[in-house]
Amino acid sequence: MEHNSVRYKNMRVNGFPCLNPMDVNADHFFKAAMLDKPKNTKDSKFGSNVTLINVMQLPGLNTLGISIARIDYAPLGENPPHTHPRATEIFTVLEGTLYVGFVTSNQNNMNKLFSKVLNKGDVFPAVAVAALSSQNPGAITIANAVFGSKPPISDDVLAKAFQVEKGTIDWLQAQNIMASSSFLLLATLLALASWQGMASDPSPLQDFCVADMHSPVRVNGFPCLNPMDVNADHFFKAAMLDTPKNTKDSKVGSNVTLINVMQLPGLNTLGISIARIDYAPLGENPPHTHPRATEILTVLEGTLYVGFVTSNQNNMNKLFSKVLNKGDVFVFPVGLIHFQFNPNPHQPAVAIAALSSQNPGVITIANAVFGSTPPISDDVLAKAFQVEKGTIDWLQAQFWENNHY
């Protein structure tokens, strides 16, 4: 009979297995991290260096849902636009001045920028400390993940998503856009969504909690209607998800019809929604994230090239991609950048997706980065994407339409 130590040798869990409590000592909760010491920023194109202390360096953090980082910024340095798929971040400036911000998902058809100048004093370089609500928060630096994934995302996909020539995409992919830390990248300045990590919908504590859309009370989700006032129509919508949708008016050649709690109040607290996605020939649903949902997608008609990019595990944004045919299923993990592209120049495609949130949100990368209201500083974006400010100004002047209807 196989011994337990052999059987469990290669076991993998979400997080790490626990040591025997009898073998634990104070050193498991300690690291001489020297977070008081300035770090080198000279070797970074972005002029920043992130020193992250997570569960990989401090095993006592396992299951405790927190980590910490020091961020050093050279004069005019930045930590470029990014997301943390598994963490909310709280940030404090120790020295210097920082311009910081985040961009919302497309609530009310607008990627709104919330930004602020943070001060400690007029001292350069700048230093900050961030705490994050995950033992291993992950980081997706937008420029790295989109243009530096391994293998690269198709230039057909990115040219349509960013509305530029394929030659521009090929040039950007050849730049070897690098991470801002020589240690393990954690990005902490311009998170594209502040409510990502460990996000989940309110749990149901009764059979249902139909959303009261007219209540003046604001909670995470919606208040519940009186159960005595609930009827079957609260759980029904004539959504016509069997009907083809218009893709001709979309620059990217797709149309997403989402049924979430805003259209179907019975979904409140139930943690699920559904969408139909129509793709024109050579149409795509461009690189985007859902800050509050994992997505499972099945192809109803046609063929789709799909993929997602990991956070920078082992200092690499790895692309997982696949060509899907009718009837195939693919999963996009919560918070990760993903896309779908119809490679057929003659035939449309159709897919249905279920999402693990009553209101999953969507952050279309090009729209959020170049079309936020108000715009992100062109100084920030020029350094993040390693291009001239004139290129950024041109991109920000384009009309970044929403393909969610």
Can you describe what's shown?
With 405 residues, the chain is an alpha+beta fold. The chain folds into 2 domains: 4-173, Sandwich (Jelly Rolls); 227-396, Sandwich (Jelly Rolls), CATH 2.60.120.10. It has helices spanning 4-7, 142-147, 155-162, 166-173, 365-370, 378-385, 389-396, and strands at 48-53, 67-73, 82-83, 89-95, 97-103, 113-119, 126-132, 140-141, 254-259, 273-279, 284-289, 295-301, 304-309, 319-324, 329-332, 337-341, 349-355, 363-364. It has a 5-stranded antiparallel beta sheet with strand order 9-10-17-12-15, with no helix packed on it. Strands 14-13-16-11-18 form a 5-stranded antiparallel beta sheet. Strands 1-2-7-4 form a 4-stranded antiparallel beta sheet, with no helix packed on it. Mean pLDDT is 83; it is low at 179-198. Its main location: secreted. Mn(2+) binds at residues 288, 290, 295, 338. Pfam families: Cupin_1.
Number of strands: 18
Strand order in space, largest sheet: 9-10-17-12-15
Poorly predicted segments = 179-198
Q: Strand-residue fraction?
A: 15-25%
Largest sheet: 5 strands, antiparallel
CATH class of the largest domain: Mainly Beta
Q: What portion of residues is helical?
A: 10-25%
Mean pLDDT: 83
CATH superfamily of the largest domain: Jelly Rolls
Cα radius of gyration in angstroms: 22 Å
The CATH topology annotation of the largest domain reads as Jelly Rolls
Which sequence of SSEs, written as H and E, runs from N to C? HEEEEEEEEHHHEEEEEEEEEEHHH
Q: List the total number of helices.
A: 7
* Coarse structural class: alpha+beta
**Terminal residue distance:** 59 Å
